[in-house]
Prior knowledge:
This protein is an alpha/beta fold. It is built from 16 helices and 16 strands. α6 packs across α14. The longest helix has 18 residues, at 148-165.
Amino acid sequence: MATPRNQLLYFVFLVITVTFSPELSFSGETVSSLPGFSGDLPFNLQTGYITVGDSAMFYYFIESEGNPRKDPLLLWLTGGPGCSSWNSLVYEIGPLEFDLDASLEGGLPHLRSYDYSWTKSASIIFLDSPVGTGFSYSTTPEGWPSSDTKSADEAYEFLLKWVGENPQYLQVPFFVGGDGYSGIIVPLITKLVVEGIEAGVLPQLNLKGYLVGSPNTDDFIDLNSKVEFAHRMALISDITYNNAKKHCKKNYIVVDPDNTQCVLALDDYERCVRGIWQNHILEPKCTLGRPQDDRWTRRSLQEDPNEFILSVPQVSNLWCRDFNYTLSDSWANDNTVQEALHVRKGTINQWSRCNQTISYTKDQPSVVQVHQNLTDKNLRLLVYTGDRDMVVPFVGVVQWIKSIKNAANLTLSDKWRPWFVDAQVGGYTRKYEKDSYYLTYATVKGGGHTAAEYYRRECYEMFNRWVSFYPL
């Protein structure tokens, strides 16, 4: 635990650093321009590495385009696990986007500014975590394997080192955020920050809350909610849903193979949702090739023509959102891009937007209890999800929020209502509270997985209001 003398000395150092520095200084390297972007960047971008044990954790830092001396600081992690924070920066919440029309002309993909960036209201550290994600790497073979627990621990150590090198941000409000699988990691990091503050660990962050979008939270709840979601969205019939609910006893994950009625009901469910793209049930599902099994052979189709009727048709000229993602791989693997980003040569063989080859152990199947324990702290939590997301359906999100509400005796302070952007419904929201703890839940109307990728403007307005302590 830090002694009062050490705390005083550190505070004096902080005051001197913040008060007498005419300009904010940074530990990373400045990136004033990027290949594929015309002209200089209209925002302050820094990139760099922070050493954490055997790992070199890469990050993009974008200074707030508002008032960086007062605006909040946000540590942001993308899900996966294994998806680079570049994914969030360019597709979801950052100030850049790919120019698809210009990029179709060939050559290096083109970038352009995006107006409704969360960096209008906050300074954001986009962290490539865990190790093996994006440009983050390990210097030893033992350092490559990761897990939920290790990922959170490394992110927390990264954070302390980063703010130690950038002490001007210790006085501004601090938030932890992420989406997708980072719904597991974000509350774990928040818990570590709270424990560090209570133990007097220096430097002391000005933690105000955390936020999770389309968040994985509890394996059992998340996966089980898919069947109910499919029924609510009219993807399966009443008969199929009622049979599954009755015979599977609302457990669609661990199924007894001898429970014939449950198996048949789930088989009907699978047939109905096979052709649905779960990231967004209203968008096309891309199939680059048909599955290579007997079900798809001509003989099989002759024996069971229903398989043909229920199969996923191939459409050669079908636009798919996945096409956008290939631009990131083409762009980030270019040598001039990596030089501009100050990437260390020889540390990454092939950059992937989402690295599916990382060695990773999911050792935290649920963080509901972590969320519940944090209700005793002076924190604010924002949970948001797209209402057309079948990867992490809103049905499950509502379920675990209600369990926290009941266990922690939270009070409903803002009943279910629409929230608006430009006089149009952006989604729906409700709010719970207890003492100085506040939990805001919001849907993004028409959003998929993750919500900010589909409705960037609406999600910016939602974040800006929440982080500014305004009602949605």
